[in-house]
Design brief:
By secondary structure, this protein is of the alpha/beta class. It has two domains: about 220 residues, 3-Layer(aba) Sandwich (Rossmann fold); about 110 residues, no CATH class. Helices cover about 35% and strands about 20% of the residues. The chain contains 13 helices and twelve strands. The radius of gyration is 21 Å and the shape is globular. The two termini are about 40 Å apart. The protein binds adenosine-5'-triphosphate and magnesium ion.
Length: about 375
């Protein structure tokens, strides 16, 4: 198994501003398939800090959902965690999630760490009224007090701006997509978890409902203080909600940094590719470019850097050696700006000069626009 630079569970470099509620170290996940092993997550390490939103971005098939599911041990049967550690911390206790027993794991899920799934609109049981679903799930967690549970459910449904009494009496099909998404959000928060994982929370919603959910999430997070792992291929959503961003490619984090670092000073050619593929909010005439080539076959990955077949900066070294996530500043590779690229500085300079040239030509640059990142 490949060694990562980080072997300890302690934050590296300068002390992180907040303690880590979740530390993932050198996590490897694969799926068994007929053709061989699908290397879906390959040596991922990161910290989720208290109260922060960390966005995991990357194109389809890069391993985002697999990583999120692995953290809660909700993977499909065909998946196997090949190695690594997932450490969860609360009130000075540290728990190794990967070695929790079934009963402990049930308690961990939902009450400590809740997830709103991708395609969440189908996640509600169609034959149960909303209240019955909430109560059944709460009872399974040992929350047997019906009245207290109902009060909490009403409070949260009101917080997500729903007519709580009506919603509790409704079947899922009686609610719109946006309403169901809010119900799921409220349900996820019922047991006051410290971590909320959101997998593509707004992808299936219209733009106004998306807006409402984003505002709501921001408010709830501020109020309740949980940490969010936001999985999305929507860069504008990440820019809007995240404090830090991790770019994922072929099962690995290839760049990590604050939202400003990732959007204004990208150092990995894949992050640059993603940024160039997104229209600016201000509109304008900047030509959009797709990332050339297609995502790699995770069963037969190329040697060296997995991005090299698509990379305009690739040199001989990239064909042979895969770079790990290398720190770009003194904050270290887990809490500072880091990129898994041998030529990160060359990439960053090329991006900056392209931005400069576009600015001179009067075109909107990078993520520039009235509200990008919108804060
Ligand atoms: N149950 C499964 N069995 C076999 N392979 C799987 C399974 N689930 C996912 N994979 C494969 O693992 C890889 C990573 O998939 P994953 O769903 O984690 O990607 P993702 O980044 O979440 O993509 P998307 O943005 O489309 O949701 C893909 O190649 C996918 O085909
Ligand atoms: Mg996914």
């Amino acid at each position: 198994m490949q060694q990562t630079k980080q072997q300890t569970t302690q934050p590296d470099g300068a002390a992180a501003a907040q303690p880590a509620v979740l530390s993932v170290r050198d996590l490897w996940v694969e799926y068994r398939a007929r053709r061989g092993a699908v290397q879906a997550v390959r040596g991922v390490s990161f910290d989720l800090l208290k109260g922060e939103t960390l966005a995991l971005i990357g194109e389809s098939g890069s391993g985002k959902t697999t990583l999120a599911l692995a953290l809660m041990r909700l993977l499909a049967r065909s998946a196997r965690i090949r190695g690594g550690r997932v450490l969860y911390r609360r009130d000075g206790r540290e728990v190794d999630v990967l070695s929790l027993k079934p009963g402990e794991l049930r308690r961990f899920r939902w009450s400590e760490c809740a997830i709103v799934f991708q395609s969440a609109l189908n996640a509600l049981n169609p034959v149960l009224k909303v209240w019955d679903q909430i109560f059944d799930a709460a009872a399974a967690h040992g929350m047997g007090n019906r009245q207290a549970m109902r009060r909490r459910a009403i409070e949260l449904l009101q917080r997500v701006q729903l007519d709580a009494e009506r919603v509790l009496r409704s079947y899922p099909h009686e609610l719109s997509g946006g309403m169901r998404q809010r119900v799921l959000l409220a349900m996820a928060l019922v047991l006051n978890p410290q971590i909320l994982i959101l997998d593509e929370p707004t992808t299936a919603l219209d733009i106004l409902t998306q807006r409402a959910i984003i505002d709501l999430l921001r408010e709830l997070k501020q109020e309740l203080g949980f940490s969010v792992l936001l999985v999305s291929h929507d860069l504008s959503l990440a820019a809007e909600l995240a404090d830090r961003v991790a770019t994922m490619y072929a099962g690995r984090i290839v760049e990590l940094g604050t939202v400003e670092e990732i959007f204004y000073q990208p150092h990995h050619p894949y992050t640059v590719g993603l940024l160039k593929a997104v229209p600016t909010l201000a509109g304008g005439f900047r030509p959009l470019e797709s990332v050339r080539g297609s995502p790699p076959d995770l069963i037969a990955l190329p040697p060296g850097c997995k991005f090299h077949p698509r990379c305009p900066f690739a040199e001989q070294r990239c064909l042979q050696e895969e770079p790990e996530l290398l720190a770009l500043d003194t904050r270290g590779s887990l809490h500072g700006h880091a990129a898994a690229c041998w030529y990160a500085e060359v990439v960053a300079k090329a991006w900056q000069s392209e931005q400069g040239a576009q600015k001179e030509a009067g075109a909107p640059t990078g993520m520039e626009g009235e509200a990008w990142p919108p804060r």
